[in-house]
Amino acid sequence: MHNIQLAATQIVQQVLVDGRNLNQVLDESLRRKSVWTPAQRAALQDLSYGTLRFYGQLNAILNLLLHKHMTDQRITYLLLVAIYQLHYSRAAQHAVVDHAVRSADILNPKIRGLVNAILRNFLRNEAALLEQATLTPEGRYSHPVWWIDELKSQYGVAAEAILDAGNGHPPMTLRVNQRKGSTADYLAKLTDLTIAARIIAPDALQLDKPVSVDKLPEFFAGAVSVQDAGAQYAARLLDVRSGMRVLDACAAPGGKTAHILELADVEMIALDKDEKRLQRVADNLQRLDLKATLFAGDAAHPHLWWDGKPFDRILADVPCSATGVARRHPDIKWLRRKKDLPAFSAQQSDILAALWGLLAEGGLLLYVTCSVFKQENQDVIDRFLTENADAKQLAIALPCGALLPNDQHDGFFYALLQKHS
Q: Do 130 and 182 share a domain, yes or no?
């Protein structure tokens, strides 16, 4: 256990101190020690994700336990990992403490006694410490203060549910490939394998418990894909029909591209700025036996890649703060800054303006973000509408285009625009 604690400590420190991406750091750590068992790898992921998911609460508790500033950052993050284990995991408490002391002995032998005392103090006073931690906003919601304030300003009483959802575990949802069979038929196949699931959208099945994809029937034959139910709105809102020319302007990793192709025979152009991420689109399409033309290019600069032929439909799933998917990527909560929002908003406006010139008259453009903040959502659309008289926002079956994160889907924003003369 102490090796897993040490690895998680290093991962959390690299995210919070160096500002690195959690998935990237975790992948690097797992590659460095390939001898770990699947259970150990899962434990490392849980400690890393969990500590960052509840960092606000854990840090508030640690501040209550420390009588002075801890000069050794490595010990600070080890303690956060251990407190997460003690409160949230099923590991034996004495084992967690003993291994944390052993880990401290490796990092800084002079502080091993302090680590032991702090963790045992936590166990003696756990309930009181948890209650005291809620007295600060970060301790109560495990989100940064600016994020909490922004949500309360924009959503009022609904903000608390959004914050709670941001600390939960995301559901595992499948998208059934309608070219291979119906959603009901695939549900029956899952039932035969005693994999409990339910239909929550035309193409979407939500599993009661996550499973590895190799346990899903016909996954590698392209029968299903893993895709959040909120993300599955895109293809159907775009109202694609066979024979249309369609652009997915920020396509990687290709889930929405594939969904469109599963619903209609279209001429699909999948664009992404990142060539490496574009390869993931190619891999997904190959597994699903679907075809598209792939281009590496910047959606904000179409003159570098566009052939001059207008598109009937454009999907603009633009770069954003990803604040609607924070429960899948808990590092986002601690890496994002309030100043990032206007920067994303400017980039989104540039992309939207550039893509509008590629849309055929009467065509539809679907603007998408996975952000919960209006600065990246309706504010961008409202500015665009005032600057483009040929643009009209169409009504869709979502309140203000917003899908707020809940137990069925992540947070998304959709705006459907039509071009007229």
A: no
Residue 127: alpha-carbon gap to chain centroid: 31
Q: Provide the residue range defining the domain that includes 193.
A: 173-226
**Together in a domain, 266 and 406:** yes
Could you tell me the CATH number of the domain that includes residue 207? 3.30.70.1170
- Choosing from 250, 320, 370, 400, the catalytic residue is 370
Q: Are residues 33 and 96 in the same domain?
A: yes
Question: What φ, ψ does residue 94 adopt, rounded to 5°?
Answer: -65, -35
Residue 34: pLDDT band (50, 70, 90) is low
Query: Pairing mode, if any, of strands 402-403 and 412-419?
Result: antiparallel
Whether residue 270 is found in the same domain as residue 413:
yes
Whether the Cβ atoms of residue 355 and residue 299 lie closer than 8 Å to each other? yes
H or E element in which residue 8 lies: helix 2-16
Is this prediction's pTM over 0.90?
yes
Beta pairing class for 293-296 and 267-272: parallel
Is 370 among the catalytic positions? yes
pLDDT tens-place string over residues 38-67? 899 999 999 999 999 999 999 999 999 997
